[in-house]
Amino acid sequence: MSSRLVDGGASTLPRLVTVTQAARLLAVSGDTVRNWIRRRTIPYIILPHEEGAKSEYRIPLQGLLSCLAGTYDLGADLEAVARAAKEIDPAVDVLEKLSGPLQ
After folding, report:
1. Strands of the sheet with 57-60, listed across from one edge
2. For 94, which of 36, 51, 79, 82 could close a Cys bridge (C-beta 3.0–4.6 Å)?
3. Rounded to an integer, what distance in angstroms lies between the CA atom of residue 12 and that of residue 38?
4. pLDDT score for 35
């Protein structure tokens, strides 16, 4: 899935999602996503923060999707849904609708 399609054509920068957004997208809890981060199962970045403060993570959407295994290609399905939605309304951001407002 191209980042251009995921970003609605607005940017070629990687789409970063929050722990909550990743959890909603995959129908798991935020704790599950944080466990994956702790075990380095999925790619992530840590936002700058004060020493001793709670870490905030962002997850590259493409990296998250590429970590999934199994017989179902969620990335391809999201791409198809995004393409269909753009044909109906170019302003629609499918991932925002699925996972809530992106930061």
Report:
1. 16-17, 57-60, 45-46
2. 82
3. 28
4. 97
Backbone angles phi, psi at 46, to 5 degrees: -105, 125
The full set of domain ranges for the chain reads 3-99
Is 100's pLDDT higher than 60? no
Global pTM reads 0.70
What sections of 1-93 are H helices per DSSP? 3-6, 19-26, 30-38, 61-67, 74-88
Do residues 37 and 58 touch, judged by C-beta distance below 8 A? no
